[in-house]
TrEMBL record:
The keyword Transcription regulation applies. It comes from the Bacteria. Keywords: DNA-binding, Transcription, Transcription regulation. It comes from Streptomyces rhizosphaericus. This is HTH gntR-type domain-containing protein. It holds the Pfam family GntR. Residues 1-57 form the HTH gntR-type domain. The lineage of its organism: Bacteria, Bacillati, Actinomycetota, Actinomycetes, Kitasatosporales.
Length: 242
């Protein structure tokens, strides 16, 4: 069965457990166990309320030498990215993010909530925080360009670089499970990240992303960029020349 599925196009609906049981002359329990094993190997994926489908899992590379752009990273892996903005609002910087931003809690930041799609599969639920000073009219910019990285480069005239990242895998909270249409026992990647301006070290963005583990394999590359690393850990805030 696994060999047959390997020849099917990504997104092809997989036969039901009853159909598999009849075809191979086994009981429903054996058919269910076979599908679960294929899911465990990421050969197929289940989407709550839709069914089971042939899966294609791509590498999502995290590296200082790779721009912190979801769209560019997914496109480089050979898939089609799409972002859907759910909300953009200006809020006081939450206290738990103040240290990462190297700014006082309460400073004005944009909070962006987005859904990310890979080949039309809703794969990620994303929260991003960007200082208002970097892009005052971010909500308008995101109507024209769906990449925050590109908006920062074009509007803020900066060069975002991933400076800090923490990757873990866990069962997401109920809200994320609902949004991503995942079963309550399915794990997902949690990627928390900080991006800085490569030139002068200002923190440009913090993000928290939940991504379906059956959609991507997160690959962290530790490259040796000592000069950039030194900028990334500079504790003081640098004032950008006007």
């Amino acid at each position: 069965m696994s060999a047959e599925l390997a020849e099917c196009a990504h997104g092809t609906r997989v036969a039901s457990e009853a159909e598999i049981a009849r075809r191979f002359g086994v009981g429903r329990a054996a058919a269910r166990a076979a599908v679960q094993e294929l899911e465990r190997r990421f050969v197929v994926r289940r989407t709550q309320g839709s069914g089971t489908f042939v899966n294609r899992r791509i590498d999502y590379v995290i590296s200082r030498s790779v721009p912190p752009s979801w769209s560019a990273t997914i496109a480089a892996a050979g898939a089609t990215p799409r972002a859907l903005v759910k909300s953009v609002r200006t809020i006081p910087l939450p206290a738990e993010l103040a240290d990462r931003f190297e700014r006082p809690a309460g400073s004005p930041v944009h909070e962006v909530v987005r859904e990310f799609y890979i080949d039309d599969l809703l794969a990620s639920w994303v929260h991003e925080w960007i200082p208002v000073a970097e892009v005052p009219h971010l909500d308008l910019a995101l109507h024209a360009v769906d990449s925050v990285d590109q908006v920062l480069r074009q509007t803020g005239r900066v060069r975002p670089m991933r400076a800090w990242c923490r990757v873990s895998i866990d069962v997401p909270p109920a809200e994320v499970l609902r949004v991503l249409r995942m079963e309550s026992s399915q794990p997902a990647w949690l990627v928390e990240s900080v991006s800085r301006d490569e030139a002068i070290g200002d923190v440009l963005m913090c993000s928290r992303t939940w991504t379906r583990a059956d959609a991507v394999r997160v690959v962290v590359e530790l490259d040796d960029r000592r000069a950039v690393a030194d900028v990334a850990v500079t504790p003081q805030r640098v004032v950008r020349p006007q």
